[in-house]
Amino acid sequence: MSICPKNRTSKARKNKRRANWKMGTVNLIKCSKCGALTMPHRVCKNCGSYNKETIIEQSVEAK
Questions:
Q1: CA 9 → CA 3, 12, 27, 42, 52, distances in Å?
Q2: What's the whole-model pTM score?
Q3: Are 37 and 30 in contact (CB under 8 A)?
């Protein structure tokens, strides 16, 4: 069995509590090698580098 609330919660009080459930903006920084926007502390998807060092070798596909 659950506990019954003593008083009803109003819509305003309920919605004030839910007002902080918003999504924040994504923090992006420029890659130090290629200048593409990436998330901090992650390998760049464009050039495969992290902290000015190449971590992942990018294969060049012929078009």
A1: 15, 8, 36, 44, 54
A2: 0.53
A3: yes
Has residue 7 been placed in a domain? no
| Measured CA angle at 6 (ends 2, 11), to 5 deg | 100
In this structure, the number of other CB atoms found within 10 A of the CB of residue 36 comes to: 13
Instruction: Flag whether 55 is in a domain.
Output: yes
Q: Which helix (H) or strand (E) holds 13?
A: helix 11-18
Residue 47 near residue 59, CB atoms below 8 Å: no
Residues 11-31: pLDDT tens digits?
A: 999 899 888 888 888 899 999
In contact, 44 and 51? CB cutoff 8 Å: no
